[in-house]
Amino acid sequence: MEAVGKYEFNGAGEDELSFRKGDTLKVLSTEDDWYKAELLGDEGYVPKNYIEMKSPSWFRGNLSRAESEATLMEQDLGSFLIRTSQSAKNEFSLSVRHEEDVQHFKVLRDGKGHYFLWSEKFSSLNSLVDYYRQTSISKSSQIYLRDGSNESKGGYGASMMASPSTAGPGFTAPAANFKKSSFTPPPTLMLKPLQRQAHIDAQMQRQA
């Protein structure tokens, strides 16, 4: 998913990703208080309170395959949702209402981090969705993604708003509360030097 930088962040370590206020980041994982993200081909950890998640209505987080089928069978042809994969961590599945059933597509990623279903590749899930609003996602029939937004081809389809129970952890915009306790490093970074926390504290003081 995507996030926008709320404040400038200058990474102190090799595994931290620097960015500026207003930059759009591709979020790769959302565990703990540090998120792994990508910007212009570079990957690293960023403090979640420095970014604001952009969670579209079609993203349903940890919704299961069975739950997505039950939801979409009540919707119009082309209605869809994207959810986190149940079989692979940090990967996504696209579920789409077809004529008689719901079909599921694994969203693939290449070595450069681009998303794709077939041959066309995209820098973000948002771009992939926008493309298949205007191009049939099915190879055997004309099925366009529809979620009730103005960008949907034909302009109809039920809107599926994410709720706290289905949006998944990490996809609620973080509170702008810059307390020291809000920046606990993820488990893999707990053994980094103490100056890491001092560096973050200094940035918070400058931007408060």
Roughly what fraction of the amino acids lie in strands? 15-25%
CATH superfamily of one domain: SH2 domain
| Cα gyration radius (Å) | 19 Å
Q: What structural class should be given to the helix and strand makeup?
A: alpha+beta
> How is the CATH topology of one domain named?
SHC Adaptor Protein
Q: Mean pLDDT across all residues, rounded? A: 77
Tell me the CATH architecture of one domain: 2-Layer Sandwich
Number of DSSP strands?
Answer: 10
Count of helical segments? 3
Task: Estimate percent helicity.
Answer: 10-25%
Largest sheet: 5 strands, antiparallel
Distance between the termini: 27 Å
Give the strand order of the largest sheet, numbering strands 1, 2, ... along the chain. 4-3-2-1-5
CATH class of one domain equals: Alpha Beta
Pfam families: SH2, SH3_1
InterPro entries: Grb2-like, SH2, SH2_dom_sf, SH3-like_dom_sf, SH3_domain
Protein name: GRB2-related adapter protein 2-like protein
Organism: Callorhinchus milii (Ghost shark)
